[in-house]
Amino acid sequence: MTMKNLFPKMLGWAAVILLIAVFDVSAEVRTSNLYWAPEVATVGGKRVDALLNFIFYLTAAVFVLTQVVYIYYLVKYRKRPGSKAHYSHGNNKLEIIWTAIPTAIFLGLVIYSNRLWSELHSTPPDDAVKVDIVSYQFGWDMRYPGADGRLGKVDVHSYSVDNKFGLVADDPAGDDDFASTELVIPVGKPVHIYLHSRDVIHSFYVPAFRLYQAAVPGRTIAWVWFQTTRTGNFELACSQICGSGHYNMKAPIRVVTQEEFDKWQAGKIEAHAEAAKATSAARVLRNATASGRQPTEQNL
Ligand SMILES: [Cu+2]
């Protein structure tokens, strides 16, 4: 073998080794389900997985079956001395059958997945934990309602350096809202998120929750809610290329027991009250100067 022939071959092997190395390194982050989707952690995610698995195993079975039949006949009717080729015009009955079966399966999948989609996006339960999530270049801000259980109104025009949630000046419901840089959730409880963006399009993406939703500047995305099935630490990652710091746009998610959540929430509410006392304005999350504009955005 000449050097000229050897070079592309070596290049090919180098690429394969590099790929294996890259996947090996990235796989270290996860400890379970390395070659499948991350272990699911929401009620809705389980239903999405069931559909995904059904499609996967169905197509895998069809693939194997057709390949086996194909190879069998390839060998059986191979060219041999004395064998004569036979011309076939096809079979209309067979054509109809193998067109009708996949059509029925596809229609069934469309109807079922459409129904699943609308169920996952149904009205969230009243007792859901409400969280306002504001994405920005390059991070996430969370806002929880205070003791009143109500999130203060926001307006896209109110965003400023001092008012990172865009709270409007004349809604007292926002006075006790507290901020967090991590998303803390009580396990098993429905969580209703209100998704915002301060600058460009970002995307709320939690693989273990099977959740993906774009955050669009100027809009309140209010139809995302989910219910976790187990405690644990997860990562909220932006999945919309949004600029130079996109790779590092993430926030921790902690799914904890109800007691732990209550404790965390009480601590946050207390710290917020202390801060409010210090500013003597009870308006910690927004600047106290009213803009004079009518708020244009909806109630949360
Ligand atoms: Cu982003």
Description:
Helices cover 37% and strands 20% of the residues. It has four helices and ten strands, in the order αααββββββββββα. The radius of gyration is 28 Å and the shape is elongated. The protein starts with a helix and ends in a 21-residue tail after the last helix. Bound molecules: copper (II) ion. Copper (II) ion is lined by residues 135, 202, 238, 240, 242, 246, 249.
Put simply, the count of helices is: 4
- What is the CA–CA distance across the termini? 72 Å
Query: What percent of residues are in strands?
Result: 15-25%
Cα shape: elongated
Bound small-molecule species? copper (II) ion
User: The CATH topology of the largest domain, please?
Assistant: Immunoglobulin-like
Order of strands, main sheet, comes to 3-2-1-5-8
Major sheet details = 5 strands, mixed
Please state the average pLDDT score: 86
Report low-confidence residues grouped into runs of 5 or more.
288-296
Summing up helix and strand content along with how strands pair, one would put the structural category as: alpha+beta
Overall number of domains: 2
